[in-house]
Amino acid sequence: MDSLSYLSNADSAYIDSLYQSYKEDPESVDFGWRKFFEGFDFGQGAGGQTVSVSENPEQLLKEIKVLNMINGYRDRGHLFTKTNPVRERRKYYPGKELETFGLGNGDLETVFNAGVEVGLGPAKLKDILALLEETYCQSIGAEFTYIRNPEKVKWFQERLERERTKPSFSIDTKKRILKKLNQAVVFENFLGTKFLGQKRFSLEGAEGVIPALDSVIEKGAESGIEEFVIGMAHRGRLNVLANIMGKTYKDIFAEFEGKGYDESKPFDGDVKYHLGFSTDVTTETGKKVHLSLCPNPSHLETVDPIVEGICRSKIDFKYQGDNSRLAPILIHGDASVAGQGVVYEVLQMAKLDGYKTGGTIHLVINNQVGFTTNYKDARSSTYCTDIAKVTLSPVFHVNGDDVEALVYAVNMAVEYRQRYHNDVFIDVLCYRRYGHNESDEPKFTQPLLYKAIESHPNPREIYNKKLMEQGSVDANLAVEMEKSFRALLQERLNESKESNEYSPNPMFSGAWAGLRPGTAEDFEVKSQTAVSEEELLKVANTLTQLPEGKKFFKKIEKLFEDRKKMVENRKFDWAMGELMAYGTLLSEGHRVRLSGQDVERGTFSHRHAVVKMEDSEEEFIPLAQIKKGDAQAKFDIYNSHLSEYGVLGFEYGYALANPQSLTIWEAQFGDFFNGAQIIVDQYLVSAETKWQRSNGLVMLLPHGYEGQGPEHSSGRPERFLELCANFNIQVANITTPGNYFHLLRRQLKRDFRKPLVVFTPKSLLRHPLCVSTIDEFTQGAFQEVIDDTYATAEDVKRVLFCTGKIYYDLLEKQQADQRKDVAIVRVEQLYPTPITQLRELKNKYVNAEFFWVQEEPENMGAWPYICRKFRKSELNLEVISRKEASSTATGYAKQHISQQLYIVGKAFEDVAGKEVKKAVVNTTKKVVNVD
Hints:
Blueprint: H1 12-24, H2 31-39, H3 57-76, E1 111-112, E2 123-124, H4 125-136, E3 140-143, H5 150-163, H6 171-194, H7 209-222, E4 227-232, H8 237-243, H9 249-256, E5 277-282, E6 288-293, H10 303-317, E7 326-333, H11 334-339, H12 341-347, E8 361-366, E9 369-370, E10 373-374, E11 395-399, H13 403-420, E12 424-429, H14 447-454, H15 459-470, H16 477-498, H17 533-542, H18 554-569, E13 571-572, H19 574-587, E14 592-596, E15 611-612, E16 619-620, E17 635-639, H20 645-657, E18 662-666, H21 677-684, H22 687-691, E19 698-700, H23 717-721, E20 730-732, H24 737-746, E21 756-758, E22 772-773, H25 775-778, E23 785-786, E24 798-802, H26 806-817, E25 822-827, E26 829-831, H27 835-844, E27 849-857, H28 863-869, E28 878-882, H29 893-907
Parallel strand pairs: 4-6, 4-7, 7-8, 8-12, 11-12, 14-17, 14-18, 18-19, 19-21, 20-21, 24-25, 24-27, 27-28
Antiparallel strand pairs: 1-2, 3-11, 5-6, 9-10, 13-22, 15-16, 20-26, 23-25
């Protein structure tokens, strides 16, 4: 909206009346008019006399038109900038600039008091116009007037108009900019000539990003930033690694030579332009800054939530909540920032209590082509950065060939971030010298653009010429810089060829010091997770206490009364088992963080970790009361926004930065992780193999067939199990609160970390048999397999292996029919598969045949994995399940019941003397038949 719209079509008599009111009481008029009157003294009354502004109405209306012009430039000047180095941008119609605002060339020599608004004082119109053109229509286009905070808008206006967006850098700063440009240009050229034909995803055309990043770090350090966490896709990553992060040229060349591969180690690695790095650098002023560049797959914006999670974790733990000491930098591509949905999901976190990081610096490498797609086919918005307006974030559009303008813009962005702790975008208009990769031919889709690019000088040549014209540097400086730097690169290349040494980032350093990779042997050892009865009851009693004098909902009071009875009876349900796991860990000094949709109460209203007063928004968190003061660790629980991809990525990043915290993401229903499958595939299950980065994140996925339809039944265990290898993750489907308690505590009681995927129950949250006695918490450890305690081994003719909720359906049938010839064995941990324990059971039940029983269709659930894992094994398993299907479950309650009854009935069918056939369901009839 036009912020000076109150001036349009104004009536002079009306303005006069407002002015008189303003002189009597400034607060009696609107902010807009107050601002107008504060900035201008009309006529002869500058000394404070009350005069009539209607004495010269024509001059007044002209003043208003000049103000409208000023506001027009502030609002829309970015549309007419010189920001595109290789394309023509829109222009004014010749001679129409003034006519747009009702002014003409005859007004150019007229003095207008409106000049006060731009810091000139009373000034000629031509001088006001020149200032606006220089400020808003040159190499920087600024978008900020939509910000609803007047202080922020005024900060931008005063800063930009005072300096006219003209950088004023010292000779030393200019030389440093030239040096970084030289490194960027020569490095790319060197790689292109020495490693011909190898993909490197060159930065050529956008080399100004290197001095810009360098300046962000320098400026940030001056303003108190001690650490930056950077996320970016592959374009330009090698250049950033070398010339910003300080990764040695020798190591980068060694990766091109393939020397990072070691077949004796269990790591497959990744391509060099996906790798991460961390280092400490010293700025020009001697300040130490830690830099981290996160590894990122080819899913371009997937790294964004990871970076934000890492930053929040470090802000919480390392910087005691002070987000002015650490800043995230996200480097986007123009097509991906506009087209990838996770960008929006991450931006919506920016001001949420559970996820904010104090403002992110977004740098967009806008090379005006996505893969090989013309920018016109890549978005519907005017700018690729228009998504910034969702969070009212300012945007600078900058000509990538004008490196000083770019450095000026990023410096201002850093100042804004530190001052207001909001996101800020820098849209670097540049180009891509080659196609998607160095062997791609971009002319196929962009013939005219790439004809222009072929003859276009690189940013270093442009800047060097500018400096020589200014007399700022010697004509030979750039030549000498290139010569010496190229010689250095050649020397490091020679060293990499002669040496077999290669030193990637150590896997377990920093916050991970003291931890190690997990091995197969580790999963054969029980962890010490039991707690004393005294400690357990202390935590349990705390969880049942509501503060006196506060009014809660009757249902909440009843819930806490029921929990008190559990303590008295020494039997606990699922929610209490979970909460006691958190409480004991908090008591032992481990921070616990849980986020997701509705996690405070739990999707199924079972958790109630946060309870609210009936007559206010005041909250009470029992888990924050385990010990007084700071004696316990902090418990964080946040209801997330309606995002899976972004939030799961955030929590993965949070866990990555601090392995000593129990970090949990809970899906509202199990298969909702579908929206975050990229995080699962590219990070959760493969990061240790690709990037040697462990993680202890816990995913809670509600799962179980209760007739709630396809989306609310299955957490898709088959998808996780097909990704299991090399002991990369843990997959569990638990049947008792006690075992769940030990499983959660085990995450922090070992000297290694593995992601944990838990298929949590729904109906079992209140199932009368799904309880655990106090002994199950104070004794023993996590049980990967739970054997049958009802059947006698010698009498058992059939063993039913199962996992999760279906156990209770089978148990009910076993007990009702008193079937001691059928044993039910629960496999609580599906991966790593407890093969040793299963073999022991095979030897125990010598007279039995073995079945795998599951609720899921035959082509889903655990069976495809179990079948593969035990093919040609002594168990000789058959399956009892639903018929294979394309959808996870039926949406018809009657059909669900029919299918469920059939599975249970088939599991206990008397098969003596008969061939066992696979159990399937004819879903078209009420009567269930066998194949």
